[in-house]
Amino acid sequence: MATTGDFRIGMVIRFNGELHKIEEYIHRTPGNLRAFVQAKLRNLRNGRITETRFRSGEEVEEVRMEQREFQFLYHDGASYQFMDKQNYDQIPVDEAILGTPAKFMKEGESVQLFIVEGGVISAEVPFKVTLKVTNTEPGVRGDTATKTLKPAEVETGATVNVPLFINEGDMIRVDTRTGDYLERVN
């Protein structure tokens, strides 16, 4: 067991039966009242942030979280398969844990997985990836003046809205958090 004096940013605790990560905290001592710790906690299951007060010195259950680098192997339809780069073990990860960035992962890409009590609870995919456009309508010369977008399919099968001057075979950079086109790569 840990106390509120042991709090640090990034620490994982079990609060109300669920795992939470401490995003920020502050120890407050108002005038005549007792001291308390006010913390912003991110629920690791659904991503919601809540603000909670703890009594100063209150005991909380600290959960050990392990962060390891894995390599994305393939998507088998039901889950995403990853390989541990240290011992070559393979583990399946549900799409719900990966979220939106899962659509933009290429085979062989490195991903940070966060493991608690033997199970993967979240993943950190690179924010920007470079992908090849496999299918889109051909661009027309002079279509660079407006901000009109068209759909384009990339090599992972995802669809991204790109400017009109992007053609099949072009390499583009995509933001994995939002799925937005960032720039064309030479």
Q: How would you describe this structure in keywords?
A:
16 strands; 5-stranded antiparallel beta sheet; mainly beta; 6-stranded antiparallel beta sheet; OB fold (Dihydrolipoamide Acetyltransferase, E2P); SH3 type barrels; 186 residues; 3 domains; 1 helix
- What is the CATH topology descriptor of the largest domain? SH3 type barrels
The poorly predicted ranges are none
What is the succession of H and E elements?
Answer: EEEEEEEEEHEEEEEEE
**Structural class designation:** mainly beta
CATH class of the largest domain: Mainly Beta
* Cα shape: elongated
Describe the main β-sheet briefly.
Answer: 6 strands, antiparallel
**Percent of residues in β-strands:** over 45%
Oligomer: single chain
Strand order of the largest sheet: 1-6-2-3-4-5
Average pLDDT level? 88
Number of strands: 16
Rounded Rg: 22 Å
Helical proportion? Answer: under 10%
What is the name of the CATH architecture of the largest domain?
Roll
Give the number of helices. 1
The domain tally reads: 3
Distance between the termini: 53 Å
